[in-house]
Amino acid sequence: xxxxxxxxxxxxxxxxxxxxxxxxxxxxxxxxxxxxxxxxxxxxxxxxxxxxxxxxxxxxxxxxxxxxxxxxxxxxxxxxxxxxxxxxxxxxxxxxxxxxxxxxxxxxxxxxxxxxxxxxxxxxxxxxxxxxxxxxxxxxxxxxxxxxxxxxxxxxxxxxxxxxxxxxxxxxxxxxxxxxxxxxxxxxxxxxxxxxxxxxxxxxxxxxxxxxxxxxxxxxxxxxxxxxxxxxxxxxxxxxxxxxxxxxxxxxxxxxxxxxxxxxxxxxxxxxxxxx
Length: 276
Hints:
Strand content: 35-45%
Number of strands: 14
Distance between the termini: 80 Å
Helix content: 10-25%
Radius of gyration: 24 Å
């Protein structure tokens, strides 16, 4: 009887004092690599603007195949470097910050981060639901060039932490979604990342680049669907495969090369005959 009365009292107290809600553990932050495609194999001084730009008298350069691949990768690398430096830096710092519990299974990470000689206040929230974790990143800048808090990106991750997506907004001046990032983790690595340009009223809308890791000699790839507006004024498809250790690789770009064959480069980036 005493045990029954004790349980009833506990239930009553819990209903009266919701602050006694069981917090549980905070959600696990997705790794920052879920936002980042690896462009390290294609860092180039070549202007990254157009696939067909290379047709203007440059087809005889010795590293043409790698250069075309680097130019295409550079389009996306520039897009990320220009638009995402601040939110990505802010997200990377969250892992070293202890979250506080808010309510309704929602946790918050709040801290300052320095990017490009400016200080920003980042406020990341993660709310656990029955099927996912919902993420929102709010960023503020005070002082000269400052802006009020706004949500720079949001997203979702599966409860097992193996997959998810991010939606990034252009800037505090243009608070519209412009990039979706889908990601998957294989074993312990981020094995797949896809950028899709989603900004409305842009010819680039629906352009995408997929990056993934696989097995074999060519263990990394890009699949690209890109609007080429300088010469063709339409979408083009490009496939790129390379070795993350040997740095040799190949590219298939029918709209540039005029055929559906693979075009290869060696470990030094020079054109070479494809063996397969």
